[in-house]
């Protein structure tokens, strides 16, 4: 069966549905021949670019042989009764092989998918030109045209054949790779079954008591020497690096980007002075400002540990040692003098315990090795902490307090390790020593990560607020402290997960929770799981958290977000923020429903009913919603504008989806529906600019010289610092009043200071009039009384 037939049968491709080829008119044949040749050349270039599969195919036999050798070696190791750490190392190694082969399998599958799409395009050309050739013959086209069409069809058939051959080769390779992946899965299942067997139970009596130990070589002992084991680990590391060159190139690109971020954060503290009385915030600042290189190296190694999955154990150990060294520069300034040597002790015992993973020992020597390791751990902890037991220092930092509180548990674990080793419970000895030697490592690494993350968060918030013209220090401090508390909870959770993984409880706990969360429950015709409900809640919560972060970063309510350097028109950042947030919430809601396993097509009836409800009962809400969108995009008012609507004067505090908040100048916050803002007469005092004209009316007595009054008014306007020079102040004589000469002084000022300026200029005018002796008249009325009540007329008799 050819590839084309197989592909059509598998995917259900119907060529008649994909395209409907039509014969090309005789007059357009030459132009279409040229266009088809260009398309064929483009397809050939894409085929050449996809030749990487041939390289994979040529290298596959070597890798398959390597897998077979590793399989033989694994069976030898499992037959030699290895310790728990070597079992875990084997599982990690095979998991790395599976990840590598699965990645290659995906690449080959993508190659096949791309070629399939190319094949559909070629097939469409083939059928089109077959019809065209038949039509040209029927219309008795010139021989030269028929020849050109025939040659083009042969070229199309050649490319079609090449694509089919490429895909057949790729499918064979994919089948081989899949076979090896299945083999690896079986080996990993075998290793995991052995690890979970009674032999490796921590309370299993695996060896004879120490006093009955024999140093004669056991038949089950591995023939692998110490140097051979170390050499195999090193060769495995070199092979991993060679097979993942492209991943390393991408990784180095990422850390270059990371270097720019760390430098950007450091520049934030240098550019804007950071002053705080909070001790934790000052520590966060010092981590980025004083130790940027150590922070960069630490984050680079940590990203490497996450970026490279399924790595050899030696590669992982090297990364962890690098993390310990880098963290020393971050954490040491926070450690008291008595703890300065803790890094040497942690590193030493981590190396001592890790050697058991790579080297093979005689069973008797291995027991002695474990005994000496346990004794050394107990002595080292005692010597490190003996001075602190005698003193009580309230200023000891949290890490030092944690180590002091941890010391009794270390002594108990050391005692258990010694006694279990002596009695032959070596599985228990391995796990207790692993806890003793690794608990300090993961604690120091996670504490360093916490300090660096706190430094990053503090730097970002400090730079965000400090770059504004008006800094709200109370809000800035509250946000910095709140984010530090959140980071501490998150890092503590991850520390706990790593601790569970260290004591080998993470995988069984994860499997148990997976089984519980994936257990289906029936609610009528709907089948749901606890996991899907949690996914629904987490997706929705994450959507709203992301929208809050976007709102804070892009548009923090004052137009001075991250987009301010683009100098966009006022209100555009708010519109961008709103659109992004709506999209995230909408997609988050759709993904959340999908996580419940619901078919969204079943909501069609509900959507129709909702539409009717909107038409009758939700008109006001929808009108307010639409008005809110118009306000955001048309921008008749912007956040921070001073507006007047319905005899309400105040500043726009927030433009929401349904309503907007206007804060009046007497301190009240008024919730105004958006529809009212759009339908009523709205006065925006600061839309295009924030300048306003103030008019100061004043009268002078008829004895005053109008020219002198105009000169005084003009001088009072031009001399005030808050009055704008353009347009200049203007003094005008208005009219001859009943009892005064009426004047007006017109000045332009910024709206925010209009009331203060009007008051100060009015006082200045009054003082100038008083100094010049100009009287400011007030209305006066003379009353003439003709007759008094009960008065006696002149000349009458009394």
Automatic annotation (TrEMBL):
Highest taxon of source: Bacteria
Keywords, comma-separated and alphabetical: Cell membrane, Coiled coil, Membrane, Transmembrane, Transmembrane helix
GO CC, any one term: plasma membrane
UniProt subcellular location: Cell membrane
Main location: membrane
A Pfam family assignment: MS_channel_3rd
Coiled coil: 26-53
Protein name: Mechanosensitive ion channel
